[in-house]
Amino acid sequence: MDEKTEPSTGPASGYTRREFVKGSAVLLGGALAGPWPLLHAFASDNEPISLFLDKVLLSWRKNADTPNALFHPYFDRQWQRYKDGPRTLVTQTRITYNFMRAFERTGDQAYAQLALRGLDALTTYFWAGDNKGWHWSCHPDGRLLDDTSDAYGQAFVILVFSTAAAVFKNDHYRDMALLTWQYMQQRFRDKQGGLVWKVNRDGRVLDTFKSQNPMMHVFEALLALAPLDTTGTVRKDATGIWHFIRARMPSPGCLPEWYDTSWQPVRTGDKAIIEVGHAFEWAFLLSEAQALNLESNLMEPAREFLAYGMQHGYDSKAGGIFSRVDLEGNLLKDTRKGWWEQCEAIRTMQRYVTRHNSKEIIEPLKRSIDFVRQHYMDAVYGGWYENPPGLGGTESLIKGSMYKLDYHVVNMCREILAADSLSNTRAKIAADTK
Length: 434
Description:
By secondary structure, the chain is mainly alpha-helical.
């Protein structure tokens, strides 16, 4: 590694990876113990996180709706539609998910109606039929564009229907999620026990490589579905996904993004990478799984993921999270600090500070929030930039695209607000016991 880049890749606040793991070794049973930062002043000019989130959701509400409820995802900095283009499983499910979270948060029926229309449009325009799953994309007017079966997209179908079942108390949505998971197991399961990414309508696998990414989002979706499944089957399936991934990690916390067709890590070329944001995401998801009692020992690997992300991704000098490292944990020539990676890192650090008593990352969490306030949050038009200047990659101040849909932003804000709610509970308990 170039010596000029080494100082920025070291552990935050002088901690080693082992110290991060040791410092995080408090399970959910200790959730009401210890201090944590109260992060009310999050956005520019000390705007509360709640107001920032409400503005983001309102921008999508005002601008994304269409007559057929195939939501428009393409917005420039000023939240104006800068083009029209395909609607995909990801655009439709993530925007619908955001509207459900907005309804859950505010009780505003306008958000509920948007979400319900979005779910109807998902079924109308993307559903291929029983035992056929979901098409990948359609034109804005609903005409079929791409009938590929995409595991990444189908994972978000499970997530959005599971969320809808919980938010709207409707078993039909649970059944649609279960049906989609049943289809996925038939269509995407490979001979090693993993999941392929893309399959055409004739059943031919289109992948030349395999990836942990769709499996991670399937795991996320199954965690949302598991509490709704009284048979316990989904819990077992989620556990199986985790066991498959864990068996293919070269070392604790280290999860390659890409594998060959035999599920061996790709070690040369541009796919020989670790997505640091996914290390944080796995740390968060395993914390969620621990809370569901999926297994009894999930916090150990969860803390290893957190430790890996902090040691190899956190910039202890300038703040923020680097997007990618090589398989040895070294920074790549592309030192980009991507938009979604910042969201996942902040969400996960907040979770571990609040619920797992990880005091050693309080300062990195504060610095990470300062970093996104400075670089990612638009104080003029509201929202979160796709790729602001000076952070690597092609500059882009847009607010919406095929994958930049603020699902990550919304979930980050929800975790911070959950921490705020827990802080109020703790304060009340302390006052009541005096």
